[in-house]
Amino acid sequence: MGQDKSFLLTDLYQLAMMQAYFKAGETGTAVFEFFVRKLPDTWGFLVAAGLEQALDFLETLHVSEAELDWLERSGHVGPSLTSRLRDFRFTGDVHAMPEGTVFFPHEPILRVTAPLPQAQYVETRLINLLHFQTLIASKAARMVLAAKGRTLIDFGLRRAHGAEAGLLAARAAYLAGFDGSANVQAERAFGVPAFGTMAHSFVHCFADETLAFEQFARARPENLVLLIDTYDTEAGARKVVALAPRLREMGITIGAVRLDSGDLGALSVSVRQILDSGGLRAVRILASGGLDEAEISRLLRNGAPIDGFGVGTSLTTSSDAAALDCAYKLQEYAGLPRRKRSTGKATWPGRKQVWRSIGPDGRIAGDTISVDGEPREGTPLLQQVMRAGERVLPPPSLDEIRATTASGLERLPEPLRRLTPGAHFPVEIAPALVALAQEADRIVNPT
Amino acid sequence: MGQDKSFLLTDLYQLAMMQAYFKAGETGTAVFEFFVRKLPDTWGFLVAAGLEQALDFLETLHVSEAELDWLERSGHVGPSLTSRLRDFRFTGDVHAMPEGTVFFPHEPILRVTAPLPQAQYVETRLINLLHFQTLIASKAARMVLAAKGRTLIDFGLRRAHGAEAGLLAARAAYLAGFDGSANVQAERAFGVPAFGTMAHSFVHCFADETLAFEQFARARPENLVLLIDTYDTEAGARKVVALAPRLREMGITIGAVRLDSGDLGALSVSVRQILDSGGLRAVRILASGGLDEAEISRLLRNGAPIDGFGVGTSLTTSSDAAALDCAYKLQEYAGLPRRKRSTGKATWPGRKQVWRSIGPDGRIAGDTISVDGEPREGTPLLQQVMRAGERVLPPPSLDEIRATTASGLERLPEPLRRLTPGAHFPVEIAPALVALAQEADRIVNPT
């Protein structure tokens, strides 16, 4: 379909509101911020991701002639809007936390400052891009902590929610610390290393399993991984031992075996034994099949000799929390602070900055959310990344982002690193922000 | 990114296996089937969806020169494969259940019959397309049953997993019985009617709420929906009553009000009362904000006078079950039945057909899964949709698919229509299929 850059990839109400803003002359400067309201149950932190795609969206935003024609014929908006859309571009400023930054609820990770119709219109796709990658990077980071240094590969393209989800999940998982993805496109688009093994169907197409292994090895001798659970996992391991000398004569080294079913803990122990006593100590064991961070943690706690994990559905769909409770909210308009006060959805108004303090142990000691411009102790996490519609910083490489995540995870207090966190992170609201919220409430008289 | 048609949108192992199949001369006819292994907890049925996109993928499958160049340089495959890929097309047959068909676990909804390298390669994207839309159509159908005829609109683009997820979720929800989507692109791409209201940020940008309502109404007088919960929902309703005569003088009719927070049940009652006593009996009440099928059902059971629901995150992410346990499995190769026997993942081999019997009450009485070609009682659900790589049937319109779903839901036995189903659907395995499974196990000697 190739419509991920379409101007029409939005909610109809954005166009309706744009039309009304222009008609009412409400085109002053608006400030919107994107933040997460609360963590999914059992999650202790989040990892910011998706900024690169968000900035790309803003930088290239425009309406094509074909879209404009369609919009005019659709009857959804009038000529007063379509005439203004022809030259519509994003000309605002953006401040954001760098991708890979560890963050917590109510902390804005992105702020848009732009004329109201622009700042409003970009809401739908900005949330769509920031939410998904932040969700997957955070989920992946939990797996990285659980895997304690073992190899982690994304196997989740097939059950990801469409093509873009598969591609961006591979990126988000890699920046969170995964080693690569089975998704070939993610290597071409982002340089995420592609990994590949073999499927059960391959084994089924040959008269016997050993023949299947040998044919696969001859065709793909590099990074050779053999899937050994199609019929009987231990028998499969013995066939690998028997085949290894013949492959060695051909100059082929078996890199790893993969287990994809059954009791992975018990099978990894017996397979390790079979491989070791067959002289294949260097052959690694990969496991896959319905894994998530809890199962990875359980397997390793019980001493399973597994060297790497292929994680699919639970990663790319964030199976225990398919969405984050997040929002992109108006914080200021025409110089005045604004905030939503709907029951249960109240937000902090104004332009904000997040300050992070590091304790003597090198771990994060606490964050303070304050009014932008008020100096606080610590390091400010939001930085300007776009001015008047153009990037002011060269985008970091994916490996640089990966290093940011790794250092953030290292600095995470121990109770928050656990799969079931032992503490809430101390995020403090600065007095200046509390005062601003009271001012915002005074400005608008609700009755 | 626009890479949803890329040949590289696949798992690396598909390319590795293709290379090995060609090298080993294993290019005989393979039969793969796509099916769901089990239902999510509390779901009673599934709705087949995604076939149109799957067939489009198969019909247009090819490798671009740029992709071929990249593949050659990537080192992942050798020239023995890339030389064959230049003319690679899908030339196989496809049998499938029509989109909108209600179905159950273990019933194949799509069968591919093609030379092995083709049938294998298409696995990743076929699953990616069929799984997601089937997931969302099934989730949406649960909401349609819960809403008992009230209007249902998809509001979920922003938290859908990327652009394609947002677009295809709008399609899947519509074919399952939703009335439309906020996603403008879904109207252009598929004719899904676009609906739009207004956001809280709009109200915040005006000095008072009434002014915001009036400005919005003047700019967008058709299908006017006013969001009344920004400050105080009941006060908002009274402002709507006060404003209505002035709008009427301008020829503007208020279509509906929307509630997006608070106790939607209690607020809908008081808002209905305020509107009715203000002479606005024709103004409808729409509700949104964290809704799912359970909450819709609860609200209506308690008599909430809500005329329509906007459903976002729970729909487009299928929040209680972000993925289905589904598979695309080799069933036959070179004329012999095959099946996977990995622990806990055994499948039924061979080419299959599903026969559906309708009882005297007009409801589905039972399904039988049998070997294709063996006549059974009832109606066969799989039909040929592609021959030698080309469609043999004109694709049904989305409204025709919607009618298929509606009739399927009507025929669903009452216990399976409930949100927590009262019975398991009787799917029978025909004796001929049991015999074929035994034959398949004899063919491959696992030890």
UniProtKB/TrEMBL annotation, chains A, B:
The keyword Glycosyltransferase applies. Transiently phosphorylated on a His residue during the reaction cycle. Phosphorylation strongly increases the affinity for substrates and increases the rate of nicotinate D-ribonucleotide production. Dephosphorylation regenerates the low-affinity form of the enzyme, leading to product release. GO terms for molecular function: nicotinamide phosphoribosyltransferase activity; nicotinate phosphoribosyltransferase activity. Keywords: Glycosyltransferase, Ligase, Phosphoprotein, Pyridine nucleotide biosynthesis, Transferase. It is an enzyme of class 6 (ligase). Residues 8-130 form the Nicotinate phosphoribosyltransferase N-terminal domain. Its EC number is 6.3.4.21. GO terms for cellular component: cytosol. Catalyzes the first step in the biosynthesis of NAD from nicotinic acid, the ATP-dependent synthesis of beta-nicotinate D-ribonucleotide from nicotinate and 5-phospho-D-ribose 1-phosphate. Belongs to the NAPRTase family. This is Nicotinate phosphoribosyltransferase. It comes from Aliiruegeria lutimaris.
